[in-house]
Design goal:
- It is built from 14 helices and no strands.
- It is an all-alpha fold and 278 residues long.
- Helix 9 (168-186) runs antiparallel to helix 14 (258-277).
- The chain has helices spanning 14-21, 24-40, 45-69, 71-76, 83-86, 91-111, 114-132, 142-157, 168-186, 190-195, 201-205, 207-227, 235-253, 258-277.
């Protein structure tokens, strides 16, 4: 074993280890949002499947790229939840998976149409790689999240039979949701990140202000999703907004893990509102 390398440890099956290294949960969640938006819109089933696949494969490249980039840092802080860091997953396997997913993303994006392809490859997937390659350690760490989540609805609408940019309220709601997700996603790793010199926006403003900012941005996304579409919002949307208000209050006033869980619940409700609004 060479100096500085991690000893191999028994780990999950290769497929599960690859999914973990790709940050499978968030990747699948983003793809699911794209798929639901596609089904809610006017896309044909095949077009919906293609654009969803394009988003999913792009998200997988972001996850694998993140763990490859962070490998020395993850080993330095002893991350046991990262198969690459523990040695349970060979680096070469992840590199090959990343290349295959990148090629699939390019092909599927092209099949979705050149407009959707540019948005997905440059603004949605590209933003994630810009974050991985250095922006995550700066005060501008929130920008890729705002850009990627704000552009995601347009990656879907531009793949339809009548390509068009998503409405501005959808873009704004997606951007607010994305920045809120960034703040929430970073909170559990603040201490480890600080130890290895990663200081994005949440690290610079601190845990409490990050929670407060998330508690503002996520309800703002809810408001945009309810008030943005033309016409009178349905009665159930007001009920959801009332629930969001209660959860936002918990995010600000509760202690322990409750604020984090309340903020995650708001994010899930935001996704529901966005999909319902189409």
């Amino acid at each position: 074993m060479t100096a500085g390398s991690a000893p191999a440890r028994p780990g999950p099956p290769p497929a599960l280890a690859l999914l973990a290294a790709a940050h499978g949960g968030p990747a699948l969640a983003v793809a699911a949002i794209a798929g639901l938006l596609a089904l809610r819109g006017d896309l044909r089933p095949l077009d919906a499947a293609v654009v969803t696949g394009a988003v999913l494969t792009g998200q997988l490249t972001i996850g694998w790229g993140n763990d490859l980039r962070d490998l020395p840092r993850d080993r330095a802080v002893g991350r046991t939840d990262k198969p690459l860091a523990t040695g349970a997953l060979p680096v070469g396997r992840v590199v090959r998976a990343l290349v295959a997913a990148a090629l699939a993303c390019l092909v599927l994006s092209a099949l979705a149409g050149w407009r959707s392809a540019l948005v997905n490859v440059v603004l949605v997937t590209g933003a994630g790689h810009v974050y991985n390659l250095g922006l995550k350690a700066t005060a501008w760490s929130w920008v890729p999240y705002a850009g990627a989540f704000g552009a995601l609805p347009s990656a879907v609408t531009l793949a339809g039979p009548s390509p068009a940019w998503a409405p501005l309220w959808t873009t704004g709601a997606g951007a607010a949701l994305g920045v809120g997700a960034h703040l929430l996603n970073t909170l559990p790793d603040l201490a480890d990140d600080e130890r290895t010199g990663v200081r994005g926006l949440p690290h610079r403003i601190g845990e409490r202000p990050s929670r407060v900012l998330a508690a503002v941005l996520l309800p703002a996304a809810s408001l945009l999703a309810v008030l943005g579409p033309a016409g009178t919002p349905p009665a159930w949307a007001w009920v959801v907004l009332a629930l969001v208000a209660v959860l936002a209050a918990l995010t600000l006033a509760a202690r322990g893990r409750t604020p984090f869980r309340a903020a995650v619940a708001i994010a899930l409700l935001d996704v529901m509102l966005l999909v319902a609004a189409g």
